[in-house]
Amino acid sequence: MQEKALKQKKIAILGGGESGVGTAILAEKEGFKIFLSDKGKIKDKYKEVLENLEIEWEELQHSEEKIFDADVVMKSPGIPENVPLVLKLKEKNIPVISEIEFASEFTSAEIIGITGSNGKTTTTKFAHHILKSGNISAGMAGNVGDSFAKQVAENDYDWYVLELSSFQLDGIVNFRPEIAVLTNITPDHLDRYDNKLENYIAAKFRITMNQTEDDYFIYDADDENIRTWLKKNPVKAQKLPFSLERKFDNGAYLENNQIIIKINNTEFNMPTTDLSLQGKHNTKNAMAAATVAQLLRIRKQTIRESMENFQGVEHRLEKVLKINNVLYINDSKATNINATFYALESMESATVWIVGGVDKGNVYSDLLPLVNEKVKAIICLGVDNAKIIDAFGNCVDVMVETQSMDEAVKIAYKIAEKNETVLLSPACASFDLFENYEDRGRQFKEAVRNL
């Protein structure tokens, strides 16, 4: 699917959210005939963009004959691969691609692609922060900020740092990042992968499938799922591992509380105590981002300063307020067990833990040792809390069920004592009581400020 071949073609876009409308903006610029269709309602801000560009669109339905008339279909990442419409498109041999694939055809910028079950947003923002500090012309897109397609239409960057979900990677054909980062793989979104972990792992590794010997693949060498996959599946790109447990001639590791990064006989080092974000998982995120920066030959001093002043990500272990010497932490972005594991592991005082939401097949037993050690009370915040009560009922003396964020925070305020922590780290998706994890996090912060 080369650029010239795509010109003057018809594109159907499924989904009228950020990636769908971004694709429409770029397709319009590149001379496509466009039809955008959303089975749900399209937000007013997106309708306005479509109207201004005179793009044909519909909502609350899919007009199949118009969609089947397309030469290529861009499917938004939220739409599963196995819905009837997508299966019919594949039967008709109409290519179904992701916005990432489409946009990459129209930019000559070099790409840093970052994926993983956890840490990808922090690592993406970290890497972008270091690149900007090093005066490199770089955009940031994918799962963060404006869509990749919209940025390709409106900007001319030399580099893009893209946060990529497995759903976005499912729809790539030729997409090839010069630098690929895989932060870790733990069970997540298995409902979209026939409840098979190996299918989810394979989706994550699509990030490197088109890489060549000139490209780089940066990965967590402590992650068993990644190590096992790499033993069975060769990767063409040059491998740069990072680890808290072992050393490398080429890669990043820890020695005497120093991060050491060695690449082709150059060495970078920095004490972990100087990192703005603490915790083992953040040390790994920093290693991955600094390895990217080393490949781009950014000055060592610039990398160090960037890692000292990086502010982190909203809704990811975000310190909200201290009230009566109790610290309130917003970790609403923790939508799976592994993310919550990191959060509980980094707690340094007795913790009142707010947990719950839509369970994506969670196995809570991994958290038992940490809950026994760190958690003094559990506040369930979900429509169905049975699994959480079942898993942790014997671990804590106080367990409360709530149906609203206000109520959860007020109860936490009553339970938490001086020098303790209240942690919102749900380990679940948010769609039962909230619009999304951002809405959940903002409601938490508002409720804390209203105490």
Automatic annotation (TrEMBL):
GO molecular function: UDP-N-acetylmuramoylalanine-D-glutamate ligase activity
Predominant cellular place of this UniProt entry's protein: cytoplasm
Pfam annotation, one family: Mur_ligase_C
EC nos: 6.3.2.9
Cell compartment(s), UniProt: Cytoplasm
UniProt binding sites for ATP: G116, S117, N118, G119, K120, T121, T122
Domain Mur ligase central: 114-293
Mur ligase C-terminal domain span: 315-428
Catalytic activity, as annotated: UDP-N-acetyl-alpha-D-muramoyl-L-alanine + D-glutamate + ATP = UDP-N-acetyl-alpha-D-muramoyl-L-alanyl-D-glutamate + ADP + phosphate + H(+)
Pathway annotation: Cell wall biogenesis; peptidoglycan biosynthesis
Alphabetical keyword list: ATP-binding, Cell cycle, Cell division, Cell shape, Cell wall biogenesis/degradation, Cytoplasm, Ligase, Nucleotide-binding, Peptidoglycan synthesis
Signal sequence region: none
Keyword Kinase: no
Function: Cell wall formation. Catalyzes the addition of glutamate to the nucleotide precursor UDP-N-acetylmuramoyl-L-alanine (UMA).
UniProt similarity note: Belongs to the MurCDEF family.
Protein name: UDP-N-acetylmuramoylalanine--D-glutamate ligase
Organism: Autumnicola tepida
Name of the encoding gene: murD
